[in-house]
Amino acid sequence: xxxxxxxxxxxxxxxxxNKALEALKQGIHPVLIPIGSSGSYFIxxxxxxxxxxxxxCDEEPFAALNPKWPKILCxxxxxxxxxxxxxxxxxxxxxxxxxxxxxxxxxxxxxVRRLASPSFFYSRCCGHHEIKPKExxxxxxxxxxxxxxxxxxxxxxxxxxxxxxxxxxxYLFQKMIVLDYIIRNTDRHMDNLLIxxxxxxxxELAAIDNGLAFPVKHPExxxxxxxxxxxxxxxxxxxEPWDVELRTYLLASINPAFLHDLCHKxxxxxFKPPRVIVKARYAFNHLQRYLMKSxxxxxxxxxxxxxxxxxxxxxxxx
Length: 318
Prior knowledge:
- The chain is of the alpha+beta class and 318 residues long.
- It is built from eleven helices and eight strands.
- The protein folds into two domains: 135 residues, no CATH class; 170 residues.
- It starts with a helix and ends with a helix.
- GO terms for molecular function: 1-phosphatidylinositol 4-kinase activity; ATP binding.
């Protein structure tokens, strides 16, 4: 298991990616993850350990090569009018860049990469298909447990979480809230919030599955029948005062110069116009960055004016 503050370096990411390429050359192919609504794969090394998660862009929920049946059986439950379809792999990468820029160290390093394997789904012609490299999000795997599993243990045995570990987890949980608010994540739940807890030794948190973020308009303005509230508002750590260290750091870090650099990095590395510029797509990418920037700009005001995360979250949503 990797601690994110160490595993998120560019050198470590390159090492993991190279191990994945070596394993593919040795015939060790990815394994389809059965849960979820799109094609996502565990990438293994030569020891058959899961070292990364790869999500091809042409196997996303509305993509033509999505291998999962729920898209066909329950099509009305998929999609969000506030998001660009089949843009999840870029959203995953964008969340990792926001995490890097703010030095939160809660999102496993994620970048757009290309892989080829017969385990992936390809279009078929006359019963044959050609194995070509697919572009998608490549995320380092942490090996942590789901928050739901860990929370169940904590509820069963209150002594597992000491006071110092409780403070540490509140600090990490509030980092996740900061990330979700800035990128306006519409799908945070306890299965894509991962925790590593060894009582008395270590407690870490990883926020994965950030593909349903970076909307082009506020989700609350799209439909009055289907909203996407922050689900973490129901947990006690969201109702506690700001961590003083985190509050001070964010107030000092989030300023016009920082937001300019963040938007520029997202534009150049993630939401860049295609080679053949489509005006509508370019406008949508601009709206994504604009909304993210406005959320980040409002965050310090919440830090100054509010002591409660839940009040701030409810007040900020239009």
